[in-house]
Amino acid sequence: MSRFWKIALIVIAVIVVAAIGFRLMHKPAAEGGYRHGAHANAAAGQSGGQDGKDNAPVPVTVEPVVSQNVPIYLTGLGTVQALNTVTINPQVAGEMMSINFKEGQEVKKGDLLAQIDPRTFQAAYDQAVAKQKQDQASLATAQSTLKRNQALVASGYVAALDMDTYRNNVGQLQAAVAADEASVRSNKVQLDYTRIISPCDCVTGIRSVDPGNVVTTTTAIVTLTQVHPIYVIFYLPEQNLETVRTAFKGGAQLEVAALDRTDSHPLANGGVLQVIDNQIDTSTGTFKLRAQFPNADSTLWPGQFVNVQLKVRTDAGGLVIPAQAVQRGPDGDYVYLLQDDKTVKMQPVTTGSEVGASHVMISKGLTVGQQVVTEGQFRLKPGSKVQALKPGEVPAAPSADDMKKARQNGQRGGGRRGG
């Protein structure tokens, strides 16, 4: 190795040794400065000191465990379905004379929707009526002839064979009149079919024909949907089947509510469970249910997706706390429970159903009146001393003595860091 490379290696080694020595000499001072400097109180608050008794109380918000009647809901995804869906097809062929509705309009049962050219059907009806009148006149003549000749049979002026002919003629004309009546009714029905009438209180859709089009019995004019009331079809997991059947036993009315897709607010209340389907879908492991809503304000619309809440029962005396009090740990759920000595402990709990959007029912681990921490848990550990505050309450401002002590602690910490 050349002399130049030997000198270079020596210089590099000296620089590395100097850097390591500088690092070792300054590291304790930096750590001591952190622990005994301006942040000494915060570090002590996190660690709790040596025994946790000399720290200032941690301000936290607490709320009591309350007892109340808790409704139990089952939730599932549902689809809104019209009570009736009717596709309007003409029952006679002809030219469409007029459309008597606006698309999207609500129509009543019996309202005129469209008019087909009635002239051909009116002519056939008039012809049937005329034929009926003609046969009725012939029948009247035949009956009069039969009546007059009956009085002459005994005198021998009319042969018995002629009387049979008179009677048979009356019978034939009576049959002709009856056939005419049927023909009149048939033609009247065909004539009435030219007026297309709404069969229900419905909402019209988008029409598929215009005035002037020639329509046949296979032409779809418009589709009507009945939305007052309206159905909601929804699904629940098969493990809920027995719960629902038990609650529904005896035809009990189970309340149903429809919520939007985000569960943020209800779209419609007042629904009633109508039927539970008679089989479970083996491909999804769910069963189907149908509820009916009044839908007076048309909030629900056919084809709409909603979240459904089915109320199956009400648990009396349920223990309820704010949902934010429940923490998740490796061993399960727990809450910080306020003790009589103003310290807290970790209390394992078993949660039940949700109560509204912000509370939860506790089935095991708490009793009525106990105080649980709802805000400030991140600064706590078992045995931490706390300052219990009510919801919305803030801790009092530090006094002059507290500020003075804090400054003195900061100065002492700075002196130790300099030493």
Low-confidence stretches: 28-53, 415-419
**Roughly what fraction of the amino acids lie in strands?**
35-45%
- Cα end-to-end separation: 48 Å
Number of strands: 20
Molecular shape: elongated
As a whole number of angstroms, the C-alpha radius of gyration is 46 Å
Major beta-sheet overview: 6 strands, antiparallel, barrel
**What is the N-to-C order of secondary-structure elements (H for helix, E for strand)?**
HHEEEEEHHEEEEHEEEEEEEEEEEH
> Mean pLDDT, as a whole number?
84
Count of discrete alpha- or pi-helical segments spanning 4 or more residues: 6
Strand order of the largest sheet: 2-9-12-11-10-13
How would you characterize this protein structure?
The structure is a single chain. The chain has 419 residues and is α+β, with helices and mostly antiparallel strands. Helix content is 33%, strand content 36%. It contains 6 helices and 20 strands. The strands form 4 sheets. It has a 6-stranded antiparallel beta barrel. Strands 6-5-3-8 form a 4-stranded antiparallel sheet, with no helix packed on it. A 3-stranded mixed sheet has the order 19-1-20, with no helix packed on it. A hairpin with a 4-residue loop joins strand 11 (266-281) and strand 12. Helix 3 (119-153) runs antiparallel to helix 4. It starts with a helix and ends with a helix. The model is unreliable at 28-53 and 415-419 (pLDDT under 50).
